[in-house]
Design brief:
The protein has 112 residues and is an alpha+beta fold. The chain has helices spanning 4-29, 39-47, 54-65; strands spanning 34-36, 69-77, 80-88, 94-100, 106-111.
């Protein structure tokens, strides 16, 4: 005869882990109104003309960012397609800039 402990491991443990992981994923996104997009979404948006090509955005921003780009992320922030661009300024400080991917308008700047 199986005891409850034998039932716990193969049946209840995976169910418990799924619930725990779902709660963790929900807690991680809590309070954030942004979504990181995959390469397919970016490609489709560019192809449809919904956003500018990244090369064009970087060319427009070069007077602000300079040549030393550290990281670029594409995400949707409050329903708007946004590039988050991290760079090193002329003084060597890491900065970040949020740019509207539709028109290269600067939305927000700050220290990284």
């Amino acid at each position: 005869m199986f005891s409850r402990a034998h039932l716990f491991l193969p049946v209840l443990l995976p169910a418990f882990l799924m619930v725990a992981m779902a709660g963790h994923a929900h807690a991680d996104s809590k309070g954030r109104d942004r979504k990181k997009e995959g390469h397919e979404e970016v490609y489709r948006a560019q192809k449809n003309g919904d956003i500018l090509p990244l090369a064009e955005i970087l060319a427009r921003l070069r007077p602000v960012t300079g040549p030393e780009i550290v990281d670029i992320e594409y995400e949707t922030k409050r329903g708007m397609p946004v590039y988050e661009i991290k760079y090193v300024d002329k003084t060597g400080r890491r900065k970040e800039i949020y740019v509207d991917a539709r028109n290269a308008a600067i939305i927000e700047t700050g220290e990284d």
